[in-house]
Amino acid sequence: MSDNCQHTNPLKHKGSSQGERLLSALLPENVELHGLTEEDWLKFAFDYAQLIHYFPSDDPKNSKGDWQSFFESGDDVTAFLNRYGDGDIEPHKALFFSFLKLLSYPQQSINGIPKRHLDFYYKDVLQLDNKPFQPDQVHVLFELAKNAKEELVDIDVSLKAGKDSEGNPLHYKTMNSFVVNPGKVASLKSVFVDKGGDGKQNLRYAPMANSKDGVEEELEQGESWMAFGDSNWPKAELGFYISSHLLLMKEGRRIIKLQFQFTSLPDIGKNNVQAFVTGEKEWLEVQVVNIVKSNPALDYNFVLELELDSELDPVVGYNEEAHQERLQVTDPILKIQFVNPAETAGEWEPLEYHRVNNSTIEKLRLEVEADITESLQLQNELGNIDPSKPFMPFGSRPKVGSKLEIISTEMKNKPIADIKIGMIWLNVPSNFSEHYELYLEEIEKQKNEYLSNIALQGSYNIVNWYKDEQILNNEYDLIYTLVSNIGLNGDASEVSPSKSDTMKSDFKVRIESPYNSGTDGYELFQDLPQVTLDVSDNPIKSTKSEINMILTSSFYHDLYAELYVNTIIGKKNPVDLPNEPYTPLLDQLTLTYIAQETVTFSEGIESESSSVMFHRHPFGAKKADDATNSLVPIYQYNELYIGIENITPGGNISLLCQVAEGSENPNHSSFDEGDIDWWVLSENKWDKVESSEFARNKTNNFLSSGIVELPVSKQATKENTLLDEGIHWLRVRLKKEEDAVSRFINVQAQASEAIFFDQENSTDHLSDGLLPETIGQLVNPRAKIKSVAQLYASFGGEPTESDDSFYRRVSERLRHKARAVNIWDYEHLVLEQFPSIYKVKCLNHTCWNGTTLNQMSPGDVTLVLIPKITKGNTEFRLKPMVSQDFKDQVKEYVSQKKPMHARIETANAIYELVRFEFNVRFQTGLDFNFYQSKVSEDLKRLLAPWVFESEAAIEFGGSFSEYQIVNYLENLGYVDFITDFNMFHKPLNKDFIRKTIIEPSNPMAILVPVEEHEINQADKC
């Protein structure tokens, strides 16, 4: 035999459902020992009267017919029964009919013999009895009276629940002891990591999670909402902030560079970045100049370059009223946000989360470069100078030692890495050598006079000596000029005038500042910038930002007067008058500085850096530290935030989490310990609440409604920037898919559980549960308790087991004897133990491993489970499934009943898709789009009626042909005709296949339609 033969299970069956369990033959009332009705007796009497002779009283020996005339004929019996009670029938008939009615009592007793016999056997012989009622439970909410601080509600506090059906008081008693406090749920927010295909992610958020859209649209009464994520929520804005004193820049061209060393480069370009800085009244948008990505081995492999236009307002300190980002800083702020530009100019949407959330920062350096002109404070020997107008920096008669003091308050306390001073001069001679041509002889004479009196030991020694002696005025100027124009041999005779401008480079300044020790040789009239300070490798920070510019050469104003007079009185040719010496005149002085600082991520350590990085979170901001040194905040899991107002840290908060039970996705709803955890916010840090700290937690991983009571630690704070201020925050983190839990209806504080207290009450309310808003007050009122509210129906109650259920249970018990041997045993054991199951199908010697089905696997037993359709689980009605937790419960239960050699697996049904493609023509005048959707809905109604009617059967197996579907469609009132009909089937682990007859590919399969078929408009005939 070939190894590739595919064997199927020879046993074909459809499983067992709850409705099929109770057979009518099991009910004793269906076994009647006496089944004649009043109508039957009347007909019998009429027929029997024909057999009895009638002897009249006047002739008792001769019969005169029979007794039939005294009774109604068979055809008149119905009319007679309708006339009974009207007083319009003969007395003897009324007397006879009364006798028949009395006969019903012994008839009932006779017919009760089977039930009494069955009860005797079940209850007296087998000692079995109906299950007693199970008391129901209810969640109640307490509210304190005004000015009350707290109140203990102990166990067994009685609550009024109206009256039962017999008029007796109905009471419930509290099941737990807890302290009622003023705490209330003030806000519900959520963050959702929306994981798409191919590793793509979007970070979404809901500022009002308990709404239709996550933002503001109010819910209808009782409507549910997704607590841990909805793909319709808006995307969160991604970005960060840099708070730094370096950003304080008042004017001019201002450049900001953020230099990163990333472990993994973010997937962003220039168009994905928006930048803003703090202006006086609003955020000022900054131009993104460039993004430079380089080799990861370099010190900085990602550089973001920004530039502020010179016309832009000053960058000022952060002000909450103007900037509203909830940052507790006063320094200026640089805000970066990552976006996707839209096709429409000026529009954008937040960037995809996966493009930036994996970039960890190893180093970050902030560098600013600014040009300062009008905000400089200038001062010389004559006083303060207005830099907005042309000015003489060294006065009207500059000399050696003349000083210009430049003060920039903007540079104070900034780590300066580079300084440049650019000077734009007015009225500068085109050639200083020609301009001072008639001065050369006097200049040379000055030099020679000094040289003759000074032992010239070397040009640099002379200069340094005079520096040490702090010689001022013309003396230093002459010496400096002399040594600048003679060789090191000290021979002044080699100096000769030249047409070239050799004097231009003689006019120099010395710079003294906290950023350098004093440097000579900066030429005043060279190309811009004239001064570039060589700051050390490590940027220098100083509280004094004064820069002194000191002249080291004269402009020869002291020679001009004598030279001019001598020329006039004839010592010189009066035609060649000396030019007036040049007085330096500045049109503009610009100081350009570069400041650099490394942003540190040392959590808990006081940093010397003034620059701090903050992450932009969906609802606030938080300082980045060693644990969060990423480009954007990291969210690994989906999170629900519960804001509590009026709570005092150190106490407990008791929360009722009401959910729409059954609305979870069963494919995701299996949980391990720790898949849901709770945290309390303290100074922007989340402190975990350990499981041992909970007073109670009955939420069952939010698969069912329940109460969780946990402590709010003493360290909890309500002044935080991560979330809204003024309230305390709890975080519930879900480490699974957002639909692994049920949809929420509400989260409310001050909740407790109460249980029905039986005072020989009628228990008929247990069938449907106690109606909402039945409980409203305490039996014994308390001054500190303002109200008690019961907003939802009770749960968990079961009335006393009915006789029908008792007979069914016992009959099944007698058959399977509480052990699973054959298929019937497995199915009925599960149906009895788990009432929420609609149908069970047991497959013998069949193994399902989650992907493949082996129908010839001795020893393996697979139980296929279909749950009941519930009101809450509307999203998964087409393919009803049970959760992994539920499958595990069934497996554990059956494992206790199975034979030793059997291996049990539980599984959901396999829903195999069916798709239709056809062209359709609707009746004349009908809207095609509307009826196109309607025909899809009607196809779903045909193949999956349980979607629309919860009581409709869900069947394994079955088949249908093209003819049946076409015939169904053409009989729809709005359909004219169908053409080009095709149908496709998707068997297990295969693609869609075109077929003319479709049937399930395996015994676990149920055929269901796809959500959308290919339905096109047919051409007119």
Could you provide a short overview of the structure?
The protein has 1021 residues and is of the alpha+beta class.
Structure write-up:
This protein is of the alpha+beta class and 1021 residues long. The protein folds into six domains: 34-111, no CATH class; 137-181 and 752-789, no CATH class; 184-235 and 618-749, no CATH class; 238-372, no CATH class; 377-592, no CATH class; 910-1017, no CATH class. It contains 15 helices and 50 strands. Strands 9, 10, 11, 12, 13, 14, 15, 16, 20, 23, 25, 26 and 27 form a 13-stranded antiparallel beta sheet that branches. Strands 37-4-5-36-2-38 form a six-stranded antiparallel beta sheet, with no helix packed on it. A hairpin with a 2-residue loop joins strand 21 and strand 22. The longest helix has 21 residues, at 91-111. The radius of gyration is 49 Å and the shape is elongated.
